[in-house]
Amino acid sequence: MKVFIVGGAGKVARHLARILTARGHQPLSLYRRSEQADDLSALGAVPIYGDLTELSADDLSELMSGSDAVVFAAGAGGASYDLTNAIDGDGFRKSLHAAIRADVPRFLQISAFPEAGRNSEPQEGFENYMKVKKQTDSELAASDRDWVILRPGTLSDDPGTGKINAGLAIPYGDIPREDVALTLATILDMPRINRMILEVTSGDTAAEEAVARLSA
Q1: Do residues 180 and 152 make contact, with C-beta atoms less than 8 angstroms apart?
Q2: What gap in Å lies between CA 110 and CA 187, rounded to an integer?
Q3: Of 91, 150, 162, 186, which has the most beta carbons under 10 Å away?
């Protein structure tokens, strides 16, 4: 497969590019800073230069042409209203419209677990981030793509274990970014997993087995 990764220089996206390459797929990683290109190439990705906030849907459509799937891994992390709305909101919409125009059949979105950030005082920027994620999730779910929305728990930079807990609704928890990437790669390898909203945390089940159970 050719997999176009929006936000390809992010931490989860870098793990995903490496895993996809090891599985014989071709990641195409969208990046916006010149110093990121060599690192992405070293992971096996094809670096694709472009600033998501400046590209049009037509621009993105041309870059995505010939891809089998899109993974939307970009995110402002609630940094500010404007940046969140520009990347998580408008950037997502441009990416989805581009995928439709380029006839890319599959579209995966990294979203947010509903319980995220509920252990601390609400922050306006983060609340806006959650609102935007829910809105874009609903737009993707209403589309005609073979979509999957993945909602991981609290992300960490710990080494992945290869074991997860995944389901339509599961208890909240943590998960290494590497295991989120492994889950995405596993979903991409199982086309029967589509039109689902999935939650994922660390667990005791190998990722391939945990994802395969969801299609039973």
Answers
A1: yes
A2: 12
A3: 91
